[in-house]
Design goal:
This protein is mostly helical and about 550 residues long. About 80% of the residues lie in helices and about 0% in strands. Helix 4 packs across helix 19 and helix 9 packs antiparallel against helix 19. The N terminus is likely disordered.
Length: about 550
Amino acid sequence: MSDVVGKIGDDAWRAQAMTPVFVGSCVLPLILIVATVSLPTVTAEFLNRAGDFYLAKFPHWIVWSVSLFLVCTMLVAALPHIGKRKLGLADDRPQTSFFSWFSMIFGAGMGVGLLTWGVAEPLAGMQNNPDVIRGLATAGSSQNMPSALKWTYAHWGLAGWAGYAIVGLAVAYTGHRQRLPLTIRTALLPLFGNAMKGSLGHFIDMVTVAATLLCILQILGFALEELVMCIALTIDAFWLLEADGSAKVESKIGASVFIMAFAAASAISGIGRGVKWVSNANMLMSIVILVIMLMAGSFMDSLNALFFSVSGYLMDLPTLLFQVWTKDGTEIGDKLQAWQGEWTMYHWAGWWLAFSPFIGIFLAKVSKGRTIRQYVFATVVLPAFLTMVWMSFAGGNAIGLELDGTANGELIRAGTGQKIFSMVEYLFVEWAATVVSIVLVLLLITYLTTTIDSAVIVINTVLGQELHSATSRRSVLGWTAVLTAVMILLILLDGFPSIRSAMVVSAAPISLLMTLLCVSLGVAIYKDETAAKLTKDPI
């Protein structure tokens, strides 16, 4: 890849800071941060109420919009003539190997979710899920394992990845084929035309950058506490923790600075070097951990759990995608609605939808020269399957340890991000558990780094679209310095709950924007088909 940064002396950072998009994109995060600093309780309460209102009043929109994105991506890939169309010109070739390409996709799209929820959600599903509520499975029994995993896949499988994919597909299709900047406004050109070249286009870019900034803050805020605690427990560095076992403020600040510095170094070297290398390391370590977990647990039980849970997920996919439960005055109906609000709505609104603009642009950036069918396979089918394999092996082993009494409830009682580390202690002898835990800590660090360097590259891509220096060193260093300072401020003020609530609220306009991208992609494909028929040239 040729995406290597410019010289340290370039003026891209100064030029970016003078654009209206830069100023506008910083307004929303700045208002949120100022409000959190000056009125932390009021701000958190207001955002919580706004998020609860959105989740309660628009459940059909959340569920059906996510389902729409999956249907659109699969339909476009399945159509014979369209699926083989390139994201780019006829002579464009892929810029990395398939392994590196997929590693970058998976690392940016999944991040720490694999480690945080890979054990936590299957364990939670064993205690309660819609099948348990409806009397189709028994909580805490081996019979409930396929259901627990199936409902976990509902949140982490095909539907979630399709949201990322549809944004990236719309951006890449128009951007690469017409040699235009890889931005949301470019993807909307087929639908809105020249309107995207003015103030409306600037506004779309502002929203994209603002959402990306909040995504970085949210994922770091979510992971820092768990990262510090896991490091402390793995290497017995208890001086990193408070007396009650929580991470010290200084420890979280140190971890934040380290992660940001690592991400900056990766982004500065460009997609073809640092980002690719870190992503490859992620994938290799993930595969090693997968194999170790498969061999450490019951081999046949793990494979059986994978087969029956995935087959159940695929058979029930229409229901999983389109079923919306609302309060109906019955005990079962109210419990189903509460469960869907706590799990499905939270995952899809606060994470998948909110993160889709920045992840989608990154997917578009690394997918030049691939066909639409290759793209959908690598951004929806393959990552969803790998996620299901991971959660089946990791979550299945944890469930097995609880069912046979080995863990005796310890895994259930452990913190969300610590469950996988607690599971390792029961699966392996002491020295092996330490080695595996160290690998998991490294994996957590590299996944965080991959997500953040991808976000920094996306911000610079959007802001630098007219500057031709989207990944210049000063702009990368400038953004990471600003984000590090904001992170430290939020750590000191415990302002992350407000960020999380803001992400849920942001899912409403973002999901509407993504729906417009689906329409715009259809218009772009139709126009290309019409032009090809008139000129009798192959597309």
